[in-house]
Amino acid sequence: xxxxxxxxxxxxxxxxKTALLDLSLSVEPGRIVGLLGSNGSGKSTLMQIAAxxxxxxxxxxxxxxxxxxxRTKAAVSFMPDRPQFESWMSIGxxxxxxxxxxxxxxxxxxxxxxxxxxxxxRDKAVSLSKGMGERLQLTLALxxxxxxxLLDEPIGGVDPVARDHILxxxxxxxxxxxxxxxxxxxxxxxxxxxxxxxxxxxxSVIMQGxxxxxxxxxGKSIDQLFxxxxxxx
Amino acid sequence: MLRLxxxxxxxxxxxxxxxxxxxxxxxxxxxxxxxxxxxxxxxRFVLTVLTYFFAGCGMLVIVCTxxxxxxxxxxxxLLPVHSWTYIASAGLYALLTGICLLVLGIGQxxxxxxxGLWEELxxxxxxxxxxxxxxxxxxxxxxxxxxxxWAVILGLSALFLAITLTESLRVKARSLVGVFLFFAMGSxxxxxxxxxxxGRGTQAIPGIRVESQSVMDLRIQGLDAGWxxxxxxxxxxxLCIWLTxxxxxxxxxxx
Lengths: 233, 255
Hints:
The structure holds 2 protein chains of 2 kinds.
Chain A: E1 5-14, E2 17-27, E3 32-36, H1 43-51, E4 58-63, H2 70-75, E5 76-79, H3 91-101, H4 107-117, H5 130-142, E6 148-152, H6 160-173, E7 179-184, E8 196-201, E9 204-210, H7 211-218, H8 222-232
Parallel strand pairs in A: 3-7, 3-8, 5-6, 6-7
Antiparallel strand pairs in A: 1-2, 1-4, 8-9
Helix pairs in contact in A: 4-5, 4-6, 5-6
Chain B: H1 2-36, H2 41-72, H3 74-77, H4 84-115, H5 117-124, E1 129-130, H6 137-168, H7 174-196, E2 218-219, H8 226-250
Parallel strand pairs in B: 1-2
């Protein structure tokens, strides 16, 4: 089976600063993958490369066997760690924007998500609080029936109640035959949904495996494991 | 391309409508207020031409700002569209706003002809059309729009390249580099057209020129450009667009 996302020996640097170093990773269909790492470990760079926003300096990236480009952008739904909507837009405008450009936009799902997230189409997107803004970002990303969802820090900077709501929405609305890659450093709240985890540090993978197997083998939660691994680094 | 343009227009709607209303009000103030305060026809004409000139500059700024925002915006760059679409939609945006200004200008010219102001201005020596002497009327009406369109395409392709390069750099004074690049390209193009094509070309990209002029001329440049200069400029346009696409794909920083 062709992996949904495959990175082979990918490296990326910003000037003298290395963001990714010889990183290889493969994501199979139907998995929720936690991309775990501390701040500056290269998570966002990896996400942006997979979304087709950045080009690696070396190595290869394939999405459903294809090089990043127009076709892969149509198959990947990316929730960046910054506002995806434009400052002039209302929530309705932001959803219409998705509808106009993505063939896999699901209007019915978007409507159900708006209700679930307690968002109104008439509200101005920039006037939303941090938590509500994250809800909108997730609504925009999950309102599509994409093959691969890339969620960059979906619960960063929001209160615990909003966090739970966002995670519930993620579990409720993602397409089961698709894969989801969630990058985060707030693991305790989110680890329950992961099938697989990938820990990165300094742009390289330092641990990878099935979440349940790792828990069983170590006798620890992923959060504890993460703290242990990063204390050593 | 059209969908991108739709969202560009939605984003800039208030600025475009406000700007359009301001231009119309200013033109009316010059014409009606000017007559009320006994302003000479040639003074009103110069003020009107200046209004159109600054309106054109303003529209160019709006289009360039829109292009710059689009190539660096996460939401736009995530869309499943080719990079040339950003260039094409910005070009279309320029064309659309240019047509609006042109329609306004044609309306004003019609008024000038109908009211006899045009002849009066020619009599005063305020209007001095150059560059059309050798053309017959059908060629004039085909040549002027084509030359204008070609000048816009050439100028915009160079501007878009300069903007894209600016957005690709990671240095502090990158805007200055972009401005320098744009004028350097204009000067180089102008020098090549002077050296190899006898100065025949649209010269749509402003180079650094020192010129002394006391009378306002409507100088129609480029109508006699010739095929060699045209082919040369076409190569420049293709090169600029190709480089812009490569930079958007590979180097532009996304904010």
